[in-house]
Amino acid sequence: MYHRGLNGVPCGPREVFVARPDGLAPLTRHYLMCRPTYFAVEYAINPWMDPAAGVDRARALDQWEALRDLYLRLGHRVSEITPIEGLPDMVFAANGALVVDGRVYGARFASAERTPEGPAYLEWFREAGYTETREPKHVNEGEGDFLTLGEVILAATGFRTEAAAHQEAERFLGRPVITLQLTDPRFYHLDTALFALSEDRVVYYPGAFSAGSQRVLRSLYPDALLATEEDAAVLGLNAVCDGRNVVLAAEATGLADRLRALGYTVHPVELDELRKAGGGAKCCTLELRDAPL
Q1: 104: nearest Cα among 130, 66, 82, 139
Q2: How far is CA 67 from CA 31, 63, 260, in A?
Q3: CB atoms within 10 A of CB 202
Q4: What are phi and psi of 282, to 5 degrees?
Q5: pTM for the model
Q6: DSSP result, 5-60
Q7: Contacts for 200 with CB less than 8 Å, ≥ 6 apart
Q8: Which residues are catalytic?
């Protein structure tokens, strides 16, 4: 299967399955990332952020480069958007959009501090040749609160993304969107509380969700792996999985051991500087799901 590159030209395999004796199959992915050139904690818009604590920008850059280089070693493709001075959270690329079948549903940030990021990311996509883009009417923070699983999209509300944005995304992308309610401010985005191992299996921390949403998740994913609060509290759920490899916070040791027992190859990453702003591996990683040929 091939994906379309710029201007719709096929430019290589979109999904490459490698036979494994344990049945786990990695997929090559295309990620968009943003170098933390201007990263800082200058304001507080989530419980993780403390402007008085300070950050080591050089350390943050080293950690980000290690994450990017890991993706490249795993065979993934990484594109980069140019960071903009004055936007310290732009490093968290996952919040910049939702891309499904080459269609780009842009972000509209809840906080004034991050508002300029939405147009900046949408402009990158347009310049990169994506022709189907949508500037949203409703507040949403991209893949921070949206997760594409096969033909279904999980979407969270409660802190950042408006429920009306779920309906807007569903109409534009043509896929059913299932709404989930977040209730713990530490887990202000869906990607801090849940990640996918495959199209039909997820890992999540139940305590981040309302009782009704927990019932929805149990019904949809009866084989889900339930994370502990200890692993969630170090942003262990802010992880990236390609079907075989799982990239997650080095401090989430209990979850890492359980994933290894299931046959996954775990890649712990140090991202403690970026965690000072409430971000981890997934926050830094926007998946570009290009249109199939």
Answers
A1: 130
A2: 12, 6, 20
A3: 22
A4: -65, -40
A5: 0.91
A6: -GGG-EEEES------TTS------EEEEE--TT----S-SSTT--TTT---HHHH
A7: 149, 150, 221, 223
A8: 189, 283
- Ordered structural domains, the chain, with CATH: 2-287 (3.75.10.10)
Alpha-carbon torsion angle 200, 204, 251, 39, nearest 10: 90
Report the C-alpha gap between 169 and 155 in whole angstroms.
10
Please report, to the nearest 10 degrees, the dihedral formed by the alpha carbons of residues 280, 62, 268, 142 taken in order. Answer: 20
> Residue type at 199?
E
Q: Count H helices, E strands: the chain?
A: 7, 17
Sort 193 into a burial class: Cβ within 10 Å, 0-12 / 13-18 / 19+: buried
For the chain, the residue count is 293
d(CA 97, CA 107): 5
Residue-level pLDDT, tens digit, the chain, 293 residues: 223 333 333 333 333 323 333 457 778 999 999 999 999 999 999 999 999 999 999 999 999 999 999 999 999 999 999 999 999 999 999 999 999 999 999 999 999 999 999 999 999 999 999 999 999 999 999 999 999 999 999 999 999 999 999 999 999 999 999 999 999 999 999 999 999 999 999 999 999 999 999 999 999 999 999 999 999 999 999 999 999 999 999 999 999 999 999 999 999 999 999 999 999 999 999 999 986 54
Buried b or exposed e, range 55-92, using 16+ CB within 10 angstroms:
beeeebbebbeebbebbeebebebeebebeeebbbbbb
Do residues 142 and 97 make contact, with C-beta atoms less than 8 angstroms apart? yes
Residues 6+ apart with CB under 8 A from 90: 34, 38, 81, 83, 84, 96, 117, 120
- DSSP conformation letters of 153-202: EEEEESSSS-HHHHHHHHHHH-S-EEEEEB--TTS-SGGGTEEEEETTEE
